[in-house]
Every structure is written in structure tokens, then in C-alpha cells.
Amino acid sequence: MSEALRPFLGFCNECPCQMFNSDGSYYVSGGPFQVAALQNLQPSQPLPVGVKHVNAALLASDCRAIASKKDFIYNADRTWRLKYRVSIFDGPFAGPGNAKAITKSYRKKNGRWRKHISWVAAQVYGNVVAGDCTGGTNVQGAYESKRRKKVKSKVSVTGAKAISGGISSYHWHEKVGSLTASLTW
User: Fold this and answer.
1) Ramachandran bin of 47, using left for φ above 0, alpha for ψ from -120 to 50, beta for the remaining angles
2) Whether residue 23 has pLDDT greater than 80
């Protein structure tokens, strides 16, 4: 093993490993052996298997591959609450990703919030862009309504990112009411 690589491998005890370039871009790899292959890579060769290149221009853009927003809303007498979450996740190394909306039902009993069965609903929809933050495709998850503690709606968005306000979700609770939330940053 070369002496130049030793300090970087000490930094790379946890996966995923990151190797930064002088232009601000970086490589993400699964382990030290992929980093060693990346160190010996010639410009004309393809990237080793399991290594992903993140361009610096994409870091400064307004689109994200992973984002989430969650909060609560209450009914008028604060005995029921709806917990909602809207998120987008693009899987690592071109793996499967999704946009998701989750609605959970809670009831206050003896001064504590406890999950409780009620009619709840969720749906996710919006616009996703390609990995280079251009173009756009509309996505819409199924409207899920059930008498449960939790319900979720999701749609596959592999290889896509979201712009601020591009992904929205609808949440409903029979005792609390409805809410439309946007994924913003």
C-alpha cells in the first residue's frame, strides 16, 4: 500500500468513503478497496463498480436527491393529532428510490400522546427532475385511505431529484381535518 494512500484510508473507516477533488466535486465509494482503485484510475478508464461521482455544480443547485419534512397538526380541543411526513429519497448507486407521504394518528390519553386507530389518508404527488436538475416528470402516488394508526403512499422515483416545492402531499384525519404540505428548503 502506498504511503500517500494511508492517511485517506484512516479517514475512511466508516462507509461510505468520500474522496474530494480540487474543483469541489467528490467521489463516494463503499470501502477502502474502491478508493485504492480510484487512486490508480486513468482519465480514459470508467469509474470502478460502486463508486459515484458528485459534481460540484450540482451541489450548488436548488435540487436535492434526499429531503424530508415532518410536523404535527391538532384538532380544536387538542385531543387528537395528525403527524405527517413527506420525503424524497434517491437510492445510492442508481438504486431504487421513492417519494413518500406518511400520515399517523395520535390521541391524548391520560396526558400522553398514544398512537390510535382512526380513519387516515395520504397521497404524494409532484414534479421530479433528472439527476442533472433539468427536465421534469409528474409523479403521483395512489390515494391511500384506511382505518389504521398509520397509512403511507409512495411512488418510485429512481434516478430523480426534487426542486424546492416540487413534491407535495395530502394528509387527512377524520378528527383533525386535512392538510397539504410541500417539500421545501
Assistant:
1) beta
2) no
Of 37 and 84, which is predicted with more confidence?
Answer: 84
Q: Cα separation of 128 and 97, whole Å?
A: 12
DSSP code at position 62: S
φ/ψ of 46, rounded to 5, equals: -75, 165
| CA 142/CA 157 separation, integer angstroms | 14
pLDDT reported for residue 68: 95
The residue type of 149 is K
Find where cell 384538532 sits. Answer: 75
Residue 113 has pLDDT above 50, yes or no: yes
Q: Render 98-115 in DSSP notation, one character per residue.
A: EEEEEEEEEEEETTEEEE
> How far is residue 139's CA from residue 33's CA, in Å, rounded to a whole number?
38
User: CA–CA separation, 108 vs 131, rounded Å?
Assistant: 43
Write the pLDDT tens digit of every residue in 152-161: 999 998 888 8
Residue 8, H or E segment: helix 6-11
- Which residues share a beta bridge with 129? 161
Task: Reduce the DSSP state of residue 27 to 3 states and report it.
Answer: strand
Cell of 78: 387538542
Distance CA 177, CA 171 (A): 8
Cell 475512511, located at residue: 12
pLDDT at 177 > cutoff 80: yes
